[in-house]
Amino acid sequence: MVNDHRPAPHPDRFGPAPEPYAAAGPRPTARQESVHDPEGDRAERARPSEHTGREARTGPVTPGEPAVELSFVSPQGATHRVRARFGPDRPRLVRPPALARPVQFEDGWRGFQVRLPQEAGADREAYTLLHAEITAALALHRAYAGTRFGGLFPTPVGYDVNTPAPFVLYAVPRGRPLSGPTERVSMGEQRAVERDLVLAVRLMEAVGLVHRGIVPGAVRRDAQGVQVWDLGSVVRTGRPRVPYGIPPYSSPEQRAGTGTTEARDALWSVAQVMYHLVTGRPGSADGPPADLAAQRSVQETLGQVFARRAQDRPTPDALLRTLAPEVAAEAASVLLPDPLERHRREFEEIRRRKHASLAPPPPAHTPSVPGQERAGDPGGFGADGSRYGEAPPAQFTGYEYPARERSRLRTWISGGRTSGTNEPGGSRSEGDTRR
Q1: What sign does the CA torsion over 168, 173, 178, 179 have?
Q2: Secondary structure (3-state) at 53
Q3: Kindly report the CA angle at 204 between 275 and 287, in degrees rounded to 5?
Q4: Nearest by Cα to 396 from 68, 126, 58
Q5: What tens digit of pLDDT does each residue of 130-187 get?
Q6: Alpha helix (H) ranges present in 333-429?
Q7: First vs last Cα of the chain: how many Å apart?
Q8: How would you classify the pairing of strands 225-228 and 219-222?
Q9: Distances (CA, A) of 135 to 60, 75, 132, 139, 279
Q10: Which pTM value belongs to this model?
């Protein structure tokens, strides 16, 4: 019984989609070679004679650790029960408070498990983000699995949200996070990353999704191309914006929480990531960087994307046709309209009206002021109280975590860097948990 559809059998310039888990059948083998990269990370990369879908190993699973029974639901809705062993957490692979760790099934398949730890089970916003990630991963997989563009996104293998530690299983992620000029990106590589990111935004727009969290840590790259992670930051197009993300990668209108989400929000993030990749520093949070004219490789192709207002930026389709007309034409051939989009919008509108009619009026003695915060409580939760009290703060951004987690969050956003390190490039391997 096959758990998922297999990808196209040949690699392409957009990166091959990793092979999903199959419950039965032989698996190709590949010679593994350990490579020491320029930044000091130890990475094991596969160099197969033909495409196997496993370009990178997941790392060692804890030796001697007993196998446990793992139950999950496949993207097709079938329940699978397997024996699995887990490796140590990789704190820089996913955005906190989520954790990621390698997993190996007894039949030899390797992948990654992204989960919420049990202590984060009461965090309703974190649970919502993981649920959104699973929904987005399934939607993208069903739309593009087996096409030349499937490798741009993580390949979901299974999930389970009805456990104390809900999780989603992915095939092995490709490459490493973007980390600025220490990568020594050539002009050709820069254009390839630029094209792939705009293409990813365009493909997500075609299925009605917008990625609000494109940051250096969410964009992985190898010789095959780009892979976009952190799908928990994905929302449906046309939903009212809520304050989310951090400057400069989140667009001004997204941080302000005004209007409705659209794909040009994500294009702003792409432009900021490319500026970071070329210069090694963050750009301006409110418009074009001051030295944009000096960065001609970015200014010539993405200059208009730095516009403060979304309506002044080009659409993903128009920008992709300018950057790579042949890729835009090829992508158009796989973009299918969503037959349920009209019904989905009607359902969302009915639900919005229902929630509005059931909302209790504010107390007469307490005026309701949007965005009001208590004095001495800038984080939206009391110094001596619980993290969110009975509910998350009204202006929750998705990045409001206790002080002990903020350093981890900054490390994730900056693509695996650790502040204060004297190592070349300022980064350590994902498996290194030193602080």
Answers
A1: positive
A2: coil
A3: 30
A4: 126
A5: 999 999 999 999 989 888 888 999 999 999 988 888 999 999 998 888 865 555 778 8
A6: 341-358, 403-413
A7: 44
A8: antiparallel
A9: 29, 10, 5, 6, 35
A10: 0.69
